[in-house]
């Protein structure tokens, strides 16, 4: 079965980055080995001229514009809904692909259980996930020269099977907007349904991480990161044993770090959405939380 690829690039006030990296992606599309059927750029209501720049200079790009800023997850979901390819290659505007960067991923998608393949960002490897002191954490795995199962696939440099993506409902923009943990969430949900996420060392790109987010205040970014970590746990960790450990760890953190109570209150404000999503995960999951974390010990 041939797997054609739709490239999806979300942009928000990143005119300089898109000017630098989009030509390389267009060039990659012309190489038939990459099997790229279309390049979709989703502008999230930029005010720096990004939309007009792409419209003027890249006629071959399918350009979509949000009327107002909706965040990373919503931009990706918009692109995914309009995509024609069987595979969705998500690339941030700060990602520079190497020549034939997609040719090595297709063998993985011959296996029906594979949900997503992580591209090889320079100086990074596969990701391991673990449960520590009541919280879900992740860290880079050991650098390897062969493919390896990964805890999650980066939403800014990864390829996802579209039909599975749509069944999972895409990125959870209701809970995780404006950014962080949304890509970990969809990969974890896939894993709990028995699917696999893979890292491919030959699919090489360069990713200048957080080129857009760094424009925001560090305190705000850290607050969102910590809030979304809690939302992820409350939504996805359905093991009674691990969730009890989480409540113990959460209590300890609030006692020793009272400022963390503000993060908890921010997360609690999403209680209705969390409970609804958690109920769905309990119903549809086939693999235990413990089984997933055991893979990465």
UniProtKB/TrEMBL annotation:
InterPro entries cross-referenced by the UniProt entry: Glyco_trans_2-like, Nucleotide-diphossugar_trans
Molecular functions per Gene Ontology: transferase activity
First and last residue of the signal peptide: none
Alphabetically ordered keywords of this record: Transferase
Lineage top rank: taxon: Bacteria
Gene3D superfamilies given in the database record: Spore Coat Polysaccharide Biosynthesis Protein SpsA, Chain A
Pfam family, one: Glycos_transf_2
Positions of the Glycosyltransferase 2-like domain: 6-118
The name this protein goes by in its record: Glycosyl transferase, family 2
Organism: Candidatus Woesebacteria bacterium GW2011_GWA1_39_12
């Amino acid at each position: 079965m041939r797997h054609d690829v739709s490239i999806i690039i979300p942009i928000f006030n990143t005119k300089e980055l898109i000017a630098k990296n989009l030509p390389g992606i267009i060039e990659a599309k012309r190489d038939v080995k990459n099997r790229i059927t279309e390049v979709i750029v989703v502008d999230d209501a930029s005010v720096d001229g990004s939309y007009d720049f792409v419209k003027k200079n890249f006629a071959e790009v399918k350009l979509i514009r949000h009327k107002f800023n909706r965040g990373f997850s919503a931009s990706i979901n918009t692109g995914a809904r309009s995509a024609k390819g069987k595979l969705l290659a998500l690339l941030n505007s700060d990602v520079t692909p190497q020549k034939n960067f997609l040719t090595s991923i297709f063998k993985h998608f011959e296996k029906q259980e594979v949900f997503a393949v992580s591209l090889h960002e320079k100086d990074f490897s596969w990701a391991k996930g673990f449960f520590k002191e009541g919280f879900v954490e992740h860290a880079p795995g050991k650098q390897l020269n062969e493919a390896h199962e990964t805890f999650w696939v980066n939403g800014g440099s990864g390829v996802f099977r579209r039909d599975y993506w749509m069944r999972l409902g895409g990125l959870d923009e209701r809970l995780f907007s404006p950014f962080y943990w949304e890509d970990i969430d969809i990969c974890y949900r896939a894993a709990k349904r028995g699917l696999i996420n893979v890292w491919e060392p030959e699919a090489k790109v360069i990713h200048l991480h957080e080129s857009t987010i760094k424009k925001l205040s560090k305190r705000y970014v850290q607050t969102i990161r910590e809030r979304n970590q809690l939302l992820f746990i409350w939504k996805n960790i359905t093991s009674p044993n691990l969730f009890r450990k989480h409540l113990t760890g959460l209590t300890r953190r609030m006692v020793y770090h009272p400022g963390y109570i503000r993060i908890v209150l921010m997360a609690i404000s999403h209680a209705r959405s969390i409970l609804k999503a958690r109920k769905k995960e309990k119903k549809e999951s086939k693999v235990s939380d413990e089984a997933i974390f055991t893979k990465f010990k």
